[in-house]
Amino acid sequence: MKKIYLLFSVCVLLFSCSDDDNNDNVDRQKIIGKYYLFSTDDVEVDDCGKETYVDIKSDGTLVSEYFETDGDECISFDGETTYTYTIKNGKITIDNEETDDVEVISYKFVGDDLELTYEEDDKVFVDYYVKAE
């Protein structure tokens, strides 16, 4: 009986891991593309903020640029930045190799769009990005 239970447990574990890997592969394919910021914490950003984007590429790189209003001008906050990323279990791990900063962001698909949840200064933020056509 113990052998049957052990065999069953191993099968469940193997199939569970396999499903996670399959989900990660599906997500990798679906997540590829360019997304523009629409809202932060359910508050729609202004037209300048909507220039903010994240471009997730199939080669494991992610390019982003953040825009903000400065007086009457819409300016890029830090210019375009390139990161490497990995996807696992509903999270994107983003690595800035220049600064050695690593950030883990939870993601969820809303149709073709993307909801990103992250923590900064002990506060949780939810950004909603619209996929470019």
TrEMBL record:
Q: Which stretches are annotated as coiled coil?
A: none
Q: From which source organism is this entry?
A: Flavobacterium zubiriense
InterPro entries, alphabetized = Calycin, Lipocalin-like
**This chain belongs to which protein, by name?**
Lipocalin family protein
Highest taxon listed in the record's lineage: Bacteria
Lipocalin-like domain mapped to chain residues: 31-106
Q: Give a single Pfam family match.
A: Lipocalin_4
